[in-house]
Amino acid sequence: METNVPSAKIYFPEEDRKKILNKIDDVLKSGYLTLGKYGKELEQKFAKYTGTKYAIAVNSGTSALEISLIASGVKNNSVILPTNTFAATAFAVHHSRNKIIFADCDNDFNMNPDSLNENIGKDTKAVILVHIGGNISKNISEIKKICDDNKLILLEDAAHAHGSSLNDKKAGTFGLTSSFSFYPTKVMTSGEGGMILTDDEILYKKACQFRDQGKEGFFSNSIVEMGYNWRMSELHAILGIEQLKRLDSFISDRRRIAKIYDKRLKEIESVQSLEFPTKLNMKSNYYKYIAVLEKGIDRGKLKKDLKEKFGISLSGEVYDTPLHLQHIFKKEYKTKEGDFPNAEDLCSRQICLPDFATMTNEQADYVIDSLKEVLK
Asked: What pTM, to 2 d.p., does this model score?
């Protein structure tokens, strides 16, 4: 058995690599390197997979978030987002000329509805719900009601959640728009890239214009919006198409590993796995397998020992430092320690165990056995 277990691993089978190379050759011969047939194919197939009307391929998940805000008409307002998310969520709010408002998280690492309610201001126009680790919030119905009652636009940051579902409804279909990332660490990748989903035709048309320098159409020089270059290239779309074909298989393999972790972590009192309410029928893609350490355990030493003694790399947390404690946001928004206690506690005690498509059951057992040894 391979005892060197990476935190994550990209997988392109040989069969797919051959298809990709043939399609890249086709693109190079055609001269259509962006906004061509492969980008359109990826959009159509991703929309069909998720059950939405429209999909817009862009060059990153960050771009997808920013375009979603602008196309939704959110400008010079405040936008609420969880403090325990990646900085890109907040950057999209800032760069779209809006004010960032943080909210605390619940014990499932997703936004706490009470904290959301408490932070709604007179100028609040939107809420960005982040599906942390690929897990759709157990409180999503309550969060949607809060948004409806306060006339707030609900946007989804589904960068982690390709293929996750709640009661058979796919991640990315709960809000006005949703944003996905195809960065190399994600469950499926296009190298660099992202996707916007929506059922709103007007918003779809605006998003298409914003991603292509604000032009009325691809072959037009009439500028109708203050756009930017947020296009996805054909080369990236080709990677995404082949990965999308494998997505359900990738998720199935991740769930197989997660079941082993769920069972075996019961052997370790000082580490708790996340538990999802069975009545909700939440099916995670396990982009991250999150576990929480007992208070007092030195996470840095634990990760160091796992790596040096057993060859096991733990992936980055989600996230080790909440945004309100990051230097740039403390400086800009005067946030401080103690503002969001649940996020501060959970961010300091979580670990993410290796989980990827080509991981074996033996490797998963080895991870747990090694974790038990380190915690002794």
From this structure: 0.96
